């Protein structure tokens, strides 16, 4: 399994969020309405959160595929990662 290929959707998601954030900056510079700016900020935040969840999930998948087993300590670490994103 190609780990870099598996992360391509995450990278694409982050690149889209990067573009959205640039749009938010333009909106602020143009003096756009607060509600519009905040809606776009929420969209960027959600996209980044999803990218984070996808990264943790992909790492867990990789651990299961290559190692076959995940210890309690590993599960605790994954839980900590997931909770840090919520």
Q: What's the topology here?
A:
Elements lengths: L2 H4 L1 H22 L4 H34 L4 H14 L1
Helix pairs in contact: 2-3, 3-4
The low-pLDDT segments are none
CA radius of gyration is: 17 Å
Mind describing the biggest β-sheet?
none
Helical run tally: 4
**Which class of secondary structure composition applies to the elements?**
mainly alpha
What portion of residues belong to β-strands? Answer: under 5%
Described by the principal axes of the CA atoms, the overall outline is elongated
Give the rounded overall mean pLDDT: 90
Please provide the ordered H/E string of secondary-structure elements. HHHH
- Give helix % range: over 70%
- Total number of strands: 0
Report the span from N to C terminus: 29 Å
Describe it.
By secondary structure, the chain is mainly alpha-helical. The protein contains four helices and no strands. The chain has helices spanning 3-6, 8-29, 34-67, 72-85. It is elongated. The mean pLDDT is 90.
Produce a short descriptive summary.
With 86 residues, the protein is mostly helical.
Features:
86 residues; mainly alpha; 4 helices; 86% helix
